């Protein structure tokens, strides 16, 4: 299987609107698939990413596919550091 081309242009489509609840973002086109994947994982709220899809050439990726591309060893961009887990002890201090 050939490796994914992160430098290819990509389109990110929002989830369909259900029950008048807006998806939280609108269609966006990106110069590179890497930028689209990074935006989807790091910037979109989880409920907006759920149901959205990424179109790269003739391939379509759902939420799981987008996350797989993001966590791949081949992902070319720096990833955002994970947020620290907040605990009740930290809040009490």
What would a concise description of this structure say?
With 93 residues, the protein is an alpha+beta fold.
Summarize the structure in words.
It is a single chain. The protein has 93 residues and is of the alpha+beta class. It has one domain. Helix content is 30%, strand content 15%. The protein is built from four helices and four strands; from the N terminus they run ββααββαα. Strands 2-1-3-4 form a four-stranded antiparallel β-sheet. Helix 1 (33-42) crosses helix 3 (63-71). The mean pLDDT is 83.
Major sheet: 4 strands, antiparallel
Radius of gyration: 15 Å
Return residue spans where pLDDT drops below 50 for at least 5 consecutive residues.
none
Average pLDDT, to the nearest integer?
A: 83
Name the overall outline: globular
Structural class computed from helices and strand pairing = alpha+beta
Percentage of residues assigned to helices:
25-40%
Strand order of the largest sheet: 2-1-3-4
**Tally of structural domains:** 1
List the secondary-structure elements in sequence, H or E.
EEHHEEHH
Q: What is the number of beta strands?
A: 4
> Roughly how many Å apart are the termini?
52 Å
In terms of DSSP E residues, the strand content is 15-25%
